[in-house]
Automatic annotation (TrEMBL), chain A:
It is a multi-pass membrane protein. This is DUF4040 domain-containing protein. The chain crosses the membrane at residues 6-29, 36-53, 59-78. Coiled coil: none annotated.
TrEMBL record, chain B:
Pfam families: MnhB. It is a multi-pass membrane protein. PANTHER family: NA(+)/H(+) ANTIPORTER SUBUNIT B, NA(+)_H(+) ANTIPORTER SUBUNIT B. InterPro entries: CPA3_antiporter_subunitB, MnhB. It is found in: Cell membrane. The keyword Transmembrane applies. Residues 106-226 form the Na+/H+ antiporter MnhB subunit-related protein domain. Belongs to the CPA3 antiporters (TC 2.A.63) subunit B family. The chain crosses the membrane at residues 72-88, 108-129, 135-156, 168-192, 212-233. The keyword Phosphoprotein does not apply. Residues 1-20 form the signal peptide. This is Sodium:proton antiporter.
Length: 95, 251
C-alpha cells in the first residue's frame, strides 16, 4: 500500500513538471502555428496530470478540447489570415 | 496609459495576488488526505440517486442548474463564432482543390473514423456509469468526424457533414436541456429535479434524468463543435476575400 502510494506521488510530480515545462514553452513561443502544436502537447500533459490525479472525466474533456479542438481552431485561423495576406501581397505586386 | 504606469500597475496587482494566493494556499487541507467533506456527501447523494458516476450525478442532477448555464455559454459561443465567421456579401467561394493523401493516412483514417464515432456514442451513452458523458462524448464525435478531412479531403468531409441538420440539432439539444427541467415542475417538484424513475444501480437506464440530459448535451456539444469547426474550415479552405479590398490582414 505504502509503495503504490509513493509511485503515484512520483507520477504526479513528473506530470506537474511536464505541465510546467510545456506551459512555459507555450508562453515563450511567439510563432502561432508552433504555439498551437505546443498547446496540443500542453493539453496532453494536462490530460496525463488529471488522469494520475484520478479525475478521468476532466481528463477526457481536456483531451478533446485542449489537445484537439483549440489547437485546430488556432491553426485554421492562422491559415486563413496567412492566405489573406498572401493575396494582398500578390495584388500589391501586380500594381 | 504609458508603459511604465502599466508595468507599475501590473507589479502592484501581481504582488497583492501573490500574497493573497500564498495566504489562501496555507489554509488548504493537506494534499491527498483521507477527509473529503464535499466528496463524501456527493458520493452519498449519487448512490441515493442510483448514478454510478458521481461526476455525472453532480453535473446533471445535484448541480444541473449550473450545467444548464455552462451549456448555454457554449451555445452562445458557437452562435457568436458563426455570426463572425459567416460569409460576407462580398466574399466568394473558391473551388476546393482535391488533396493528395498518403495511402497509409487514408487507410488509418477510414479505419479510425467509425471506431472514433462508436467510441463517442459509447461515452455519451455511458455518462451515468463511467467517466465521460455528453460533453466529452460530443467532442469525440465532432473531432472524429474530421478524420474524413485528414484521410480524404474537404469535399468528403462536406458530404458526411449534414450542416443544416446539425445547425438545428445544436439548438434542439440546448433547448432540450432547459425543457427537460420542466419535467420536475410538471410533477410538482423543483426545476431540473431528478423525478424520473431511477432504475437499477449500474444499469444503462439508471440515474433517472441523468442519461436523458446527457444525451441532450451530447447532441448539443457534438453538433455545436462540428458547426463551429465548419465555420472556421470554410473560412480557411473555401472562402476568398474580394480582390482589391483591404481586409486588414495585409498591413
Amino acid at each position: 500500500m505504502n509503495g503504490s502510494y509513493a509511485t503515484s506521488e512520483y507520477l504526479i510530480a513528473v506530470c506537474v513538471l511536464l505541465v510546467t515545462v510545456t506551459a512555459t514553452v507555450a508562453a515563450l513561443t511567439p510563432e502561432p502555428v508552433r504555439q498551437a502544436l505546443v498547446l496540443a502537447m500542453l493539453g496532453t500533459a494536462l490530460t496525463l496530470l488529471f488522469t494520475v490525479l484520478q479525475a478521468p472525466d476532466v481528463a477526457l474533456s481536456q483531451l478533446g478540447v485542449g489537445a484537439a479542438v483549440t489547437p485546430l481552431l488556432i491553426m485554421l485561423t492562422v491559415r486563413r489570415v496567412r492566405r489573406s495576406s498572401t493575396q494582398q501581397r500578390d495584388r500589391e505586386r501586380q500594381r | 496609459m504609458s508603459r511604465r504606469l502599466r508595468l507599475a500597475l501590473f507589479w502592484a496587482a501581481a504582488v497583492v495576488f501573490a500574497v493573497a494566493f500564498t495566504a489562501a494556499c496555507t489554509g488548504l487541507p493537506d494534499f491527498g488526505t483521507l477527509s473529503h467533506p464535499y466528496g463524501s456527501r456527493a458520493i452519498a447523494a449519487a448512490f441515493h440517486q442510483r448514478t454510478a458516476n458521481t461526476i455525472s450525478s453532480v453535473n446533471f442532477d445535484q448541480r444541473a442548474f449550473d450545467t444548464l448555464g455552462e451549456e448555454s455559454i457554449l451555445f452562445a459561443a458557437v452562435l457568436g463564432g458563426l455570426v463572425l465567421l459567416r460569409r460576407a456579401r462580398d466574399e466568394r467561394l473558391a473551388g476546393v482543390r482535391r488533396g493528395r493523401v498518403l495511402p497509409s493516412t487514408r487507410m488509418f483514417g477510414s479505419l479510425l473514423l467509425p471506431i472514433t464515432l462508436v467510441t463517442g456514442v459509447y461515452i455519451v451513452a455511458h455518462g451515468q456509469l463511467s467517466p465521460g458523458g455528453g460533453f466529452q462524448g460530443g467532442v469525440i464525435l465532432a473531432t472524429g468526424l474530421h478524420l474524413a478531412y485528414i484521410a480524404a479531403d474537404y469535399g468528403v468531409l462536406k458530404a458526411i457533414r449534414p450542416l443544416a441538420v446539425l445547425d438545428a440539432a445544436d439548438a434542439v439539444g440546448a433547448g432540450a436541456f432547459a425543457v427537460l427541467g420542466l419535467v420536475g415542475l410538471a410533477v410538482g417538484a423543483a426545476y431540473l429535479q431528478n423525478v424520473l424513475p431511477l432504475g437499477t444501480f449500474g444499469q444503462l437506464s439508471s440515474g433517472g434524468l441523468v442519461p436523458v440530459i446527457n444525451a441532450a448535451v451530447g447532441v448539443e456539444v457534438g453538433s455545436g463543435v462540428v458547426v463551429l469547426l465548419a465555420g472556421f474550415l470554410d473560412q480557411a479552405v473555401e472562402i476568398v476575400s474580394p480582390t482589391g479590398k483591404d481586409n486588414g490582414a495585409g498591413r
